[in-house]
Amino acid sequence: MSILSVSFLLFILGLCLVYFLVPKRFQWWVLLAFSLGFYALGGLLSLPWLLLTALSAWATARYIQDRADAEKAFLAAHKAELSKEERSARKAKGKKTRRRALTLCILLNVGVLCVFKYVHFLLAQANALAGLFGGEVRDSVRWIVPLGVSFYTFQTLGYLCDVYWGKAKAERNPLKLLLFTSFFPQITQGPISAWNDLSAQLFAPHSLDYDSFSLGAQRLIWGFFKKMVAANILSGYVSDVFANYGSYSGLATFLGALCYAAQIYADFSGYMDIMCGLCQILGIRLTENFERPYFSKSVAEYWRRWHMSLGVWFKNYVYYPIAVSKWNQRLGKWAKKRLGKAFGNYLPATLALVVTWLATGLWHGASWGYIAWGGVNGLFIIFSMWMEGPYAKWKKALRIRESAWLWRAFQVGRTFLLVTFIKVLPEVGSLRDGLGLWKRIFTEHSLPHSLSELLPFVGDRRPLLAVLFSVGLMFLVSLLQRKGSVRALLRRRVPYLLRICVFVFLFFLILYFGVPASGGLGDFIYAQY
Amino acid sequence: MHSIKKILKTAGLFLLLTALLSTGLAALYFRGECFLYQDAREREALSGSVTTLGCGSSNMYFGFRPDVMDAALGGRSYNLSGLLVSMGGRLELLRLELARNPVRTVLLEVSAETLVRDRAEEGPEGDLQLLGRLEGKERLSFFLHNFPLSEYPAVYYDVVSKGIDNALRLLEGSYQTRNEFLRDGYYPNAQKDVYISTWVLDNYHTATLSTAIRPENVEALKQIAALCREQGAELILINTPKTEFYDARYDNLDYFRAWYTGFAAAEHIDYYDFNLYRQKHKLLDDQQHFGDETHLSDSGAAIFTGFLAEILSARAEGRNLEPLFYLDYEARDWGVGYLY
Questions:
Q1: Between B14, B18, B164, which is nearest A512 by CB?
Q2: B14 and A500: CB-CB below 8 Å?
Q3: Comparing A448-452, A454-458, B151-155, B282-286, which segment has the lowest mean pLDDT?
Q4: Are residues A158 and A236 in the same domain?
Q5: Mean of pLDDT values over A218-225
Q6: Is B249 part of any domain?
Q7: Does B150 fall in a domain?
Q8: S-S: A118 plus which of A319, A366, B27, B85, CB 3.0-4.6 Å?
Q9: How many Å lie between the alpha carbon of A503 and the closest alpha carbon of chain B?
């Protein structure tokens, strides 16, 4: 079911009605029924894979929890009888068993994810390799990738790891875990929530509350505005520039890249606003995914503010385990002795970052473009980490004040340009195309003869107006968000009736500008992941 | 309970404001005749004077020039056609105009596509335009009878967005309540560089039209015939000229010719397929007289309406018209190596 459809509006209206009409203890059942319904409407064939993930995670987590509990109980009961060595041996044995179960479940789920997501990529590489020897590997795989497989697999793996590490208690009810896995507002594009955060929200009783309703509805409308007006209009221009960058001037191509930065933000954060708004109406607080990312002062900071839940997931379940692993720490110590203190200090983190960023690239898409994209992001972050010391010295020598607004503006502008350039790399087509677009920007210096040559949609007044207005409004809102929630600000400063008028106005803007731009009811960019 | 009251009040106010604004915008759309298919006020002004009506879809909309017809035959003609108008829509328009005009002749355009037109597949565009052409209770009745519930959002969007267009025109000072695009319902189509630059014979019978005739179209056609009889107007079925390229490309045009011939015989009316008019390819040139593969340009429309008037005149004199037309598409003389 498309999020940008009347059917979806009726779906959420039906959900809200049923959710608040049933007794509170049945509310999570309603969420489960609607989530499975939503998922089934997207394709029944995907459902078995979702069930497999949820059930395997439930069974494994239960097994891990039961073994851990039994071990704890045994050790407590036989505290006096067992020597320290015997207790350690027992603990190590138990941990090994639990780790084996965890590994098996991870392999199963990551295996499903890889098979669905990477089989075409792997076959293409095999074919290229076979081509060197005159052979051929045919790609005759024709299966449909289960909806949201990247998101729900990661979310469920996070739960499993938390249970294994003792950070979360394994859920006894498999249906509750199924709801955690399939909760429809986040299944297609995240956020990737932690069990402890989301379960507390999902299974708690919620009453219909005016503040939640009002703020949630406002955010929902704002999300539709961002997606339908800004993102969908820009997508036509961006797709055209990316597909034919060879025929555009360097300036127009650069502008296309900037428009893409605005488009992807409006698209992805618009979706989040729609879903967070809907959840807020239901009384559920969804993990936030954005915190004004384009106002970041470094690439590392940007990644702490863009798709935050994915960043947190990789940090908790990939980066830290690698960074603090025994072999990595040993490597660090070895490097300290042989290659110097600074090198040894940074080496474990660097290795962890390399793996994390290559994995992040692969998670986003099965192509060399995405792997390169992850690699370039990682390189910038690693480079900044290694250069922290020299930077500090330079800043001191140049008497740069960190708090000076000009310096901050420079940092924000520089980071925005950097992430924009990195962003476009996998989006143009192949890696060669991505690099070709970079080359075009820097080597093609002809000036467009007219404004319409620079901005193809400038000839039509309607989309140009819409783009200028929507991007301007998003920028203004981001600026205002520095001091807190804009909706809270509206509530404090704008009279009740005028506030309603503002959202009626937004509704008509969506209708007038957004509906034609969403002719094909434009798909969300992040739904492909 | 307090929360529920506040929610209901806020949601109610939001809906009320939206409804009020939507109503205003709808009024701006319907009252203005700013869209090229809107002609309600013009038709109303002509009420009581029209003697000949041309009615059909885009083929007739771009093909039938009332000024040429009136110059040749006298009387007062009007082109009642519209883009993507279904047979049901034509019936609705004819019902309205026949009731208020002394119409003697109705030239109903029928093509192969007319019979197979599927509203569910094609979408509501034609009916949405018709909604903008009707007024008052006719509009309401047409809306209630022709739009299923699932299309209400599309109707709402269409009406409101066009209302916003008109509101912007109002601000710019270009809002108008009289259609300035149409000439007695006829829209002059620009001549374009038609992409047909190939041998007709190379494309001869390389495509087939669907023959899935929809019963609702047939039923509406029967009702039009009955309506004309009842109102004392003579109904003539005509197929407007398409490019030679089009005629040659499809291999089953005779299927539709035979169907219409049979229908006309059963209803005791005449049917003329102007693609079988022997002089057609001498009078109309694919490159010069068409806007695209099937639609005449302004100059093409003048030529077509001219020989249509000649045929009507000869018919009124009781002359035998059969020699002027090929019997069927199979019998057509395509010429050898007809190069554009």
A1: B164
A2: yes
A3: A454-458
A4: no
A5: 95
A6: yes
A7: no
A8: A366
A9: 8
A415 and A493 housed in the same domain: no
What confidence tier does A527 reach under pLDDT thresholds 50, 70, 90? very low
Domain that holds residue A107: 31-207
Residues of B in contact with A208 (CB under 8 A): 3-4, 7
Structural domain boundaries enclosing B122: 36-130+181-324
Predicted confidence (pLDDT) per residue in A300-355, tens digit? 999 999 999 999 999 999 999 999 999 999 999 999 888 888 888 889 999 999 99
Residue A265 sits in the same domain as residue A134: no
On whether both A266 and A386 belong to a single domain, the answer is no
CB-nearest to B4 from A208, A507, A508 is A208
Question: Tokens in use for A101?
Answer: 């179960």
Q: Mean of the pLDDT values across residues A376-392?
A: 90
Confidence of residue B199 (pLDDT cuts 50, 70, 90): low
Cis peptide before B188 (omega within 30 of 0): no
Q: Which of A78, A120, A307, A364 is catalytic?
A: A364
Q: Confirm whether B283 is domain-assigned.
A: yes
SS3 for A359? helix
Average pLDDT, chain A: 89
Is A16 within the bounds of a domain? no
Give the integer Cα–Cα distance in Å for A417 and A425.
13
Task: With CB atoms and an 8 Å threshold, state whether B6 touches A210.
Answer: yes
Residue B113's CB is within 10 A of a number of other CB atoms, namely 17
Q: At what angle do helices A174-182 and A195-202 cross, to 10 degrees?
A: 100
Q: Contact B311/B324 with Cβ under 8 angstroms?
A: yes
SS3 B327: coil
- B6 CA: distance to closest CA in chain A (Å): 6
Q: Report the DSSP pairing between strands B77-79 and B52-55.
A: parallel
pLDDT on residue B336? 46
Radius of gyration of chain B (CA): 22
Q: Which residues of A touch B3 (CB under 8 A)?
A: 207-210, 213
Q: Answer yes or no: A78 catalytic.
A: no
A260 and A362 in a single domain? The answer is no
Most confident of A129-133, A336-340, A370-374, A442-446: A370-374
Per-residue pLDDT tens digits for A474-484: 999 999 998 88
Residue A362 shares a structural domain with residue A276: no
Domain assignment present for A111: yes
Interchain proximity B7–A207, CB inside 8 Å: no
Cα radius of gyration rounded to whole Å, chain A: 25
Quick check: B200 pLDDT over 70?
no
* Domain count within chain A: 3
Testing the interface with A: which of B1, B2, B3 to mutate, by most A Cβ within 10 A?
Answer: B3
Q: Please judge whether A516 and B161 are an interchain contact, meaning their C-beta atoms are less than 8 angstroms apart.
A: yes
Write phi, then psi, for A208 (nearest 5 degrees): -70, 120
What number is the average pLDDT over the span B218-237?
95
What is this structure's pTM? 0.84
Lowest mean pLDDT among A80-89, A501-510, B310-319: A80-89
Closest CA–CA distance from residue A147 to any residue of chain B (Å): 26
Query: What is the band of B340 on the pLDDT scale with cuts at 50, 70, 90?
Result: very low
Do residue A222 and residue A369 come from a single domain?
A: no
DSSP string, A289-342: -BS-GGG-SSHHHHHHHBSHHHHHHHIIIIIHHHHT-HHHHHHHHHHHHHH-HH
Span A237-295, pLDDT tens digits: 888 888 888 888 888 889 999 999 999 999 999 999 999 999 999 999 999 999 999 99
Asked whether residue A435 is assigned to any structural domain, the reply reads no
Q: B7, A214: Cβ pair inside 8 Å?
A: yes
| Structure token pair of residue A283 | 């009384």
Cα–Cα distance between B50 and B77 in angstroms, integer? 6
Residues A338 and A484 in one domain: no
Count of structural domains within chain B:
1
